[in-house]
C-alpha cells in the first residue's frame, strides 16, 4: 500500500514533465515561426513608393548609423548617396539628417558627420537640417517629425537600407507620418546576415513597445 502513493506521485511528476516539454516545444516552434515571418518581411521590403516619380516631398530624412573617425561609415555613406541621388532628382528640396553621438569614441554626432559628408558632395549647407539627439530609429523619426512641424513641412521621404525599411515604415506610421514614404538602398558593404538577424530582434522589441508609445 505504501508504494501506491509513491507511484502516483511519480506519475504526476511524469505528467507535469511531459506537459512542460510540450509547452517548451510549442514555444520553440512559435518563436521560430515568428522570427521566420519577420525575417521574410525584412528581406523582401523594397520601399513603398516610386519616390522619383512621385510628387515632391517637403524634405528627405536620412536615418543615422555609425561614424568611423567622425566620418560616415561605408554603410551610412550608402544611405547618404541615395539621399543625394533623390535630392538631385527632385524628390525633395531639403534634408534632415538625424543621429546622436556614438559610443565608439566619436567627437561629433552622426548628424554632424552626415552634414559634413553631404556638403563635401556639393549639397548646399542651407538645405540641410541636423537632428543631433536621437539614439534609436524611433527617436530619429520622432525628433525629425518635430523639426518638420516647426518648419511647416508636412511630407517626407525616409531614406535608409532595405533591411531597415519595414520597421522604419511601421514606426513612421505609428508617429503619424502621412503619407509614409520610404526609399531604400541595398548594401554592398554591410554584413547583411548580421544586420538582418539583429533587425528581427529590433523589430520584435518595437512591436512590443508600440502599444505604449
Provide a concise account of the structure shown.
The chain has 213 residues and is α/β, with parallel strands linked by helices. Helices cover 53% and strands 13% of the residues.
Protein model, in words:
The protein is of the alpha/beta class and 213 residues long. The protein has one domain (59-212): Rossmann fold (3-Layer(aba) Sandwich), CATH 3.40.50.620. The protein has helices spanning 3-43, 74-88, 110-120, 137-151, 162-174, 192-209, and strands spanning 59-63, 67-68, 71-72, 95-98, 128-131, 156-161, 182-185. The strands form two sheets. A five-stranded parallel beta sheet has the order 5-4-1-6-7, with helices on both faces. Strand 6, helix 5 and strand 7 (182-185) form a beta-alpha-beta unit. Helix 1 packs across helix 6 and helix 5 runs parallel beside helix 6 (192-209). The longest helix is centred in the N-terminal third of the chain and has 41 residues, at 3-43. The chain is elongated, with a radius of gyration of 23 Å. The chain starts with a helix and ends with a helix. The relative contact order is 0.15. The mean pLDDT is 91.
Amino acid at each position: 500500500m505504501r508504494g501506491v502513493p509513491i507511484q502516483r506521485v511519480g506519475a504526476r511528476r511524469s505528467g507535469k514533465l511531459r506537459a512542460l516539454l510540450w509547452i517548451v516545444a510549442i514555444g520553440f516552434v512559435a518563436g521560430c515561426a515568428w522570427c521566420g515571418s519577420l525575417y521574410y518581411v525584412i528581406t523582401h521590403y523594397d520601399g513603398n513608393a516610386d519616390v522619383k516619380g512621385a510628387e515632391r516631398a517637403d524634405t528627405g530624412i536620412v536615418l543615422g548609423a555609425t561614424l568611423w573617425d567622425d566620418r560616415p561609415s561605408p554603410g551610412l555613406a550608402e544611405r547618404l548617396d541615395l539621399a543625394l541621388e533623390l535630392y538631385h532628382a527632385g524628390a525633395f528640396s531639403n534634408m534632415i539628417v538625424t543621429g546622436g553621438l556614438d559610443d565608439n569614441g566619436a567627437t561629433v554626432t552622426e548628424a554632424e558627420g552626415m552634414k559634413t559628408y553631404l556638403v563635401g558632395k556639393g549639397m548646399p549647407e542651407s538645405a540641410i537640417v541636423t537632428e543631433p539627439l536621437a539614439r534609436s530609429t524611433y527617436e530619429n523619426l520622432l525628433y525629425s517629425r518635430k523639426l518638420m512641424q516647426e518648419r511647416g513641412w508636412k511630407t517626407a521621404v525616409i531614406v535608409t537600407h532595405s533591411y531597415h525599411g519595414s520597421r522604419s515604415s511601421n514606426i513612421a506610421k505609428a508617429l503619424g507620418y502621412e503619407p509614409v514614404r520610404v526609399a531604400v538602398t541595398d548594401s554592398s558593404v554591410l554584413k547583411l546576415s548580421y544586420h538582418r538577424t539583429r533587425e528581427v530582434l529590433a523589430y520584435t522589441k518595437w512591436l512590443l513597445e508600440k502599444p505604449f508609445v
